[in-house]
Amino acid sequence: MRTGTPWWIRLPLLFFAIWGLMEKFMDTDGRLAILENRGAQFFMLLVLLILISMELILGSIENIMFHTLSEEGKARYLAQKERKWEWTWAKALMAKLTKTRSMEEEKEIIIDHNYDGIQELDNVLPPWWVYLFYGCIVFAVVYLVRFHIVGDYNQVEEYERKMEEARLAVAEYKKTAKDLVDASTVEFLSEASDLAAGKVVFTNNCVICHMADGGGGIGPNLTDDHWILGGDIKDVFNTISEGGRDGKGMVPWKQSLKPVEIAQVASYIMTLVGTEPANPKAPEGDLYEQPATPQGE
Q1: In this structure, are 198 and 273 located in the same domain?
Q2: What are phi and psi of 263, to 5 degrees?
Q3: Is residue 34 within 8 Å of 41, Cβ to Cβ?
């Protein structure tokens, strides 16, 4: 009778193999099925109980069969069972890669040198070192031919291509990540929810200087076509974020408002252009022609 893989190795391997197959075939949008699905938890618990039961049954069968053996057979079985499991192929490989002379054979490779009683051995290089050296030579030849003769691969071109891919990926991500918006990427937000949120920000922070209808008070009129620091959405975003003119303009709001909130209130301000406030302030700044700005709903 011959024993196989120890149970403490066999049981976990089978359990995790079945778990892996279950995760592969269950659609959970990238999440672990065993954490998201109670049915999966019950199934894996059942699998674990079955595996443990099988191990117990196999142990019982082995014990019964052991008692049916002759005394000589029992002795052979126990001797086989007590043998330690070893990676024989790995040990053979390591012995081959680190092949050296034994102490008894050293006298055959002693070199006729003597330095203060220290003698030198003419040992061969370790096989692993020799194989690695040959591998480096092959790699160097391939590298030389590919990069300096054929030229079918250029690291500079690959770097530039990867950087361009990264820039496109970042730009695409910023389209949906509103909190990453800045003055160079901001666009007019026409969604009713964004404009409503912008109106709330305007009401809470801006009416004290610009009035509730945008007609202007301490601050300039926001409903006419004249702008001191530019009337484009990017200009308005930058003015809110960084503040107005030094010494007499609006304070920077970037420390108080999130980028998405600045984009929302800037978009709301754009909808005020062309409206009729109750007591409009005289125009200030330069005339700016608005490119068909959408109005609020």
Answers
A1: yes
A2: -65, -40
A3: yes
Same domain, 115 and 64: no
Give the domain CATH number at 283: 1.10.760.10
Query: What are φ and ψ of residue 113, in 5° steps?
Result: -120, 145
Q: CA–CA separation, 2 vs 80, rounded Å?
A: 7
Element (H, E) at 287: strand 286-287
The total of structural domains in the chain comes to 3
SS3 content of the chain, % helix, strand, coil (to 5): 60, 5, 35
- Residues 280 and 149: their CA atoms lie apart, in Å, by 74
174: Cβ contacts below 8 Å, ≥ 6 apart: 180, 181, 185
**Cα separation, 209 vs 221, whole angstroms:** 10
Over range 55-79, report the average pLDDT.
86
> Is 175 among the domain residues?
no
The rounded distance, in Å, linking the Cα atoms of 124 and 129 is 10
| HEC readout, 101-168 | CCHHHHHHCEEEEEECCEEEECCCCCHHHHHHHHHHHHHHHHHHHHHHHHCCCCHHHHHHHHHHHHHH
Rg (CA), the chain: 39
Q: 203 and 238 share a domain? A: yes
pLDDT-based confidence at 2, cuts 50/70/90? very low
Residue 120 sits in which domain range? Answer: 101-150
240 closest CA partner among 264, 217, 218, 224: 264
Q: Looking at the domain assignment, is residue 162 inside a domain?
A: no
Are 269 and 222 part of one and the same domain? yes
Same domain? 244 vs 282: yes
**pLDDT (average), residues 7-25:** 88
pLDDT tens, position by position, 221-260: 898 888 988 888 999 999 998 888 877 778 889 889 988 9
Residue 187 resides in a domain: no
Residue 296 within a domain = no
